[in-house]
Amino acid sequence: MSWITHQSLPKNLESRFLKSLTHKLFLVFEIFSMENESSVIFQKGPRRWALGRSVNQIQLVKGCPSKMADNSLISAFKNPFINPLSVASCESNDFKTVVPNREIIAAAAPGDSCEFGSNKYFALCGLGGVLSCGITHTLVTPLDLVKCRLQVDQAKYKNVFNGFKVTLAEDGAKGLARGWAPTFFGYSLQGLCKFGLYEVFKVHYSNLIGEENAYLYRSLLYLSASASAEFFADILLSPMESAKVRIQTQPGFVGTLREALPLIYKNDGMNGFYKSLVPLWMRQIPYTMMKFACFEKTIELLYKFVVPKPRAECTKGEQLIVTFAAGYIAGVFCAIVSHPADTVVSKLNQYKGASAMDVAKKLGFMGMWQGLLPRIVMIGTLTAAQWFIYDAVKVWLGLPRPPPPEMPESLKKKLGVA
């Protein structure tokens, strides 16, 4: 299509005619001077009033016959007081950039705020991850505190209910919120990379292996994309996780983030922030791989066998309910897979100078499973809430939400599938 947005015309009739005529001549020059350029949409910098009207956007579609532009201009000249260009369209969807030295804006499908796979899409997915992880982890801080204390001092905190009872008796209700600040900031940063980079790597790896292989090996695609994203996410999380665990589990340690960070650096240097990074990777990468791969497959199976109608016919609310259910199922498996490493991380930050292997040997096999039940409840609820918030943010921001994957037509022909 070829169109231009402008501001309302001046009230003076003669001025309107002259400015409209001048503007149409400008359009003729623009269209024919760029006839051979391949572009999507470009922004014309600051608004220009030299020709009597504000020029905000022009869109040219590669492959549209020039006759369309001619017919559009002829129609426009018949009436000098209306939009100079009528809407013209062509069937080609070959939106390829770029026009050198111009700011490119990706074309979006109707109803979407941006194009799937664009930089804006990835950035907004990262924002969804910030809200998703930051909010949910902070809300379950009391349960996380009791879980960590169960892992490091089972003699004192015998079970979940006893852990809450002892904490309330010693620190009051305020004590249940210990470590909320590093939790919020740490997991917000982690969510930025976890969800944002997952979308980046999923698209990148899909393009590398091709459409057919991306469908056939989609589980491996989900696993590799999520593992790559979590690798970087944990580098941002590790300093805050170290501060959180020490605030929650070390008796006599400071109670706020602003006190904890300089104290850790003073005592242990940068190693104090990153000595638990490897066990954090051991905990979080399997957790995230399960979280994304299990969620993606569960969503696919729910729509295929459980939901009584196709996803396209479901309302946004119904789709979010399915998202929550798939997220909870994924969360249960996440908790089980990552729990031993989680216990090691909690103990590692308690013992100065100990390595992950030292802690694992001291705990033993059964010791690494302490606190599993509260973690299943916490992670199941957490994962379900995260996926719900993330999907809701996508709906709210108008981001593309592709349906569950379907076999490409080319692959159907090769396999003889009708």
Helices and strands, with pairings:
Layout: H1 13-33, E1 41-43, E2 57-59, H2 66-78, H3 119-139, H4 141-152, H5 160-171, H6 180-209, H7 211-216, H8 218-249, H9 257-268, H10 271-274, H11 277-306, H12 316-348, H13 356-367, H14 372-397, H15 409-415
Antiparallel strand pairs: 1-2
Helix pairs in contact: 1-2, 3-6, 3-14, 4-5, 6-8, 8-9, 8-11, 11-12, 12-13, 12-14
Subcellular location: Mitochondrion inner membrane
Solcar repeats: 120-204, 217-301, 318-396
Membrane topology: Multi-pass membrane protein
Q: What's the total number of strands?
A: 2
Unreliable runs, pLDDT <50, ≥5 residues?
1-11, 28-106
How helix-rich are the residues, as a percent range? Answer: 55-70%
The outline comes out as: elongated
Please write the string of helix (H) and strand (E) elements: HEEHHHHHHHHHHHHHH
Our count of helices gives: 15
Percent in strands? under 5%
The end-to-end span amounts to: 35 Å
Return Rg in Å. 28 Å
Strand order of the largest sheet: 1-2
Most strands sheet: 2 strands, antiparallel
Secondary structure category = mainly alpha
Q: Averaged pLDDT, please? A: 79
Pfam families: Mito_carr
Family: Belongs to the mitochondrial carrier (TC 2.A.29) family.
GO molecular function: phosphate transmembrane transporter activity
Keywords: Membrane, Mitochondrion, Mitochondrion inner membrane, Repeat, Transit peptide, Transmembrane, Transmembrane helix, Transport
